UniProtKB/TrEMBL annotation:
GO cellular component: membrane
Species: Vitis vinifera (Grape)
Membrane association type: Multi-pass membrane protein
Record-given protein name: Purine-uracil permease NCS1
Source organism superkingdom: Eukaryota
Positions of the UniProt region annotated as Disordered: 56-83
Biased composition (Low complexity): 56-68
CDD domains named among the record's database cross-references: SLC-NCS1sbd_YbbW-like
GO molecular function: transmembrane transporter activity
Gene for this chain: NCS1_15
InterPro entries referenced in this protein's UniProt entry, alphabetically: Pur-cyt_permease (IPR001248), Uracil/uridine/allantoin_perm (IPR045225)
Pfam family, one: Transp_cyt_pur
């Protein structure tokens, strides 16, 4: 039932007047903390109102309770719609396995394989590649779990959480930066799916004039057409929203695990066992390895830093904090296992084909065989879709909804994300391993690192995990997150200062600058670490200097502490 008003119906206290005033400070704040199990709670959500109705349990002994009134939760219409509201209890359906299966769908994909293979191509031994990837994902697990906490606790998405740190209006900047990276990744994944379609085409078509490279396009018309076909195919799933994404991830995980195991078994049989497969030793000296290790570590962290930043978009649907934490642990486990597959299969190509093949699409072309080809194409397509939709559609779509809730829905945001994915020309980003790892991955980590650290510092150090849901949806100048005209200048300053030192190194990688001092090269090679810690520490210092009250959101005494 849809209710129009927010009220708590409680028996009157005989010791207090029914007209007792409640201070504005107390009534202004409302949290979405769960009620005790002994008090049945009825939650109904309408487009503009959130209604709670509680009554004493029939099993509880009646006792006098003070009468209290709360202000109606009336979010500003420009700050909310059905996609931005806190999730209701009946929407919290993600179990620990479903959260973990999300990571199976994300990890088992061509970019993850390509990332692992590129480490071998750059000269690392298989064990050096696995150590690099696992170390990066264990490090990333910490901000992943910490950022996921407010999503589960308050049922809010990443754009809404960003309002707490950056301000009601200032939150558009970090969410749009995250959306920009998501659009680029969407294009990359879609291009990979298009390559899978290209493999299925008859040789006569692939050898026609349509396959000739066009310099102005950066690829051939035929490959571009396959890219567009796969681009269109994904929209059918995107159109179903979060429910469609959850079902896709849940049922595709076992299939992807089986297909990955088959690929590893094929390599094992054709290479004559694991010993020849993993006999490829490092081609790097000790100094060369360490010079590659930290940039590779940063690149691997950046690989999933996108999802780690907007993980509240998923954890808001988790049943409990335990479920979201158990689910997140799947990242280093599954990523380590799939990295082994990628490294082993890539290494085995030197034994089987006499040359190193790090691109799985090219490897499938070498394997041949109609049945093998069909199964491989199904696997690549499924892996690409599961990764692309979950990792690269949800965040940009929610960012666009947050930008203008009255104009954008999740579907419209997803459609614009897909269109921008074409504009990124992903075939150029995948031109070589170096451009993929050290330009694309390391480059955007300078944007995401400071955003993540500012949000974490704000949530844990400044607000001590206590947020006002009312004020996250309010444009009132007296709101806790309105700051200066809706912008938190401390967060904006920290974000800019965290990014600027990385820019010279990025410009050198892009070929815009011929040379830069070694200090800027070192900063760029460790872009995520540098920007993450520098921005987070600076934001904390600036917030403390402003004298911000860390306990500015008193908890209502009628609501118990959240789990």
């Amino acid at each position: 039932m849809v209710s129009k008003y927010l009220s708590l119906h409680l028996p009157p206290n005989p010791h207090s007047s029914s007209t007792t005033a409640i201070s504005p400070t107390t009534t202004r704040f409302l949290t979405t903390r769960p009620f005790p199990t002994s008090i049945p709670t009825k939650l109904s959500v309408s487009r503009r109102w959130l209604s709670f109705s509680t009554m004493a349990s029939s099993q509880a002994t009646p006792s006098p309770t003070p009468t209290s009134k709360f202000n109606d939760f009336e979010p500003h219409p420009t700050l909310t719609n059905d996609d931005l509201k806190p999730t209701a209890p009946h929407q919290r359906t993600f179990s620990g396995w479903e959260m973990a299966s999300l990571w199976v769908g994300l990890v088992v994909g061509v970019p993850s394989y390509y990332l692992a293979g590129s480490l071998v191509e750059l000269g690392m031994a298989w064990w050096q590649g696995i150590a690099t990837v696992v170390a990066a994902n264990i490090i990333l697990l910490v901000p992943l779990v910490l950022t996921g906490h407010p999503g589960t606790r308050y049922g809010i998405s990443f754009p809404v959480l960003a309002r707490s740190a950056f301000g009601i209006r200032g939150a558009h900047l970090p969410t749009l930066l995250r959306a920009l990276v998501g659009c680029g990744w969407y294009g990359i994944e879609t291009w990979i799916g298009g390559e899978a379609i290209f493999l299925l085409l008859p040789k006569t078509i692939k050898q026609s004039s349509l396959s000739q490279f066009l310099p102005w396009l950066g690829t051939s018309p035929l490959e571009f057409s396959c890219f567009i076909v796969f681009w269109l195919a994904q929209l059918a799933i995107v159109w179903r929203g979060m429910d469609g994404i959850r079902e896709l991830e849940k049922y595709s995980a076992p299939i992807l695990i089986i297909l990955t195991s088959c690929l590893l078994l094929w390599s094992y049989v054709n290479a004559g066992g694991f010993t020849p497969m993993l006999s490829l030793s490092s081609r790097l000296s000790s100094s060369q390895f360490w010079s590659l290790f930290f940039p590779s570590l940063t690149a691997n962290i950046s690989f999933w830093a996108t999802v780690a930043l907007n993980i509240p978009d998923f954890t808001r649907y988790a049943k409990t904090q335990t479920d979201q934490i158990i689910g997140q642990v799947g990242l280093p486990i599954f990523m380590g296992a799939f990295t082994f597959v990628g490294l082993a299969v890539t290494s085995s190509t030197t034994v089987i084909f006499g040359r190193l093949i790090s691109n799985p699409i090219q490897l499938l072309g070498q394997i041949g065989g109609f049945t093998t080809m069909i199964l491989a194409i199904i696997g690549i397509s499924l892996a690409t879709i599961t990764t692309n939709i979950a990792a690269n559609v949800v965040a940009p779509a929610n960012a666009l909804v947050n930008l203008s809730p009255s104009k954008f829905t999740f579907r419209r945001g997803a459609l614009l994300t897909a269109l921008l994915g074409i504009a990124f020309q992903p075939w150029r980003l995948l031109h070589s391993s170096e451009s993929f790892v050290y330009t694309w991955l390391v480059g955007y980590s300078a944007l995401l690192g400071p955003i993540g650290s500012i949000i974490l510092a704000d949530y844990y150090l400044i607000h001590r995990m206590n947020l006002s849901i009312n004020d996250l949806y309010s444009l009132s100048p007296h709101g806790a997150y309105y700051y200066s005209g809706g912008y938190n200048l401390a967060a904006m300053t920290a974000l800019v200062i965290g990014i600027l030192p990385v820019v010279p190194g990025l410009l050198q990688k892009l070929g815009i600058l011929t040379s830069v001092p070694d200090t800027f090269v070192a900063i760029y090679n460790n872009a995520w670490f540098f920007s993450f810690f520098s921005a987070g520490i600076l934001y904390w210092i600036l917030s403390c200097l402003k004298g911000k009250d860390r306990n500015s959101h008193p908890l209502d005494p009628l609501l118990p502490a959240a789990n």
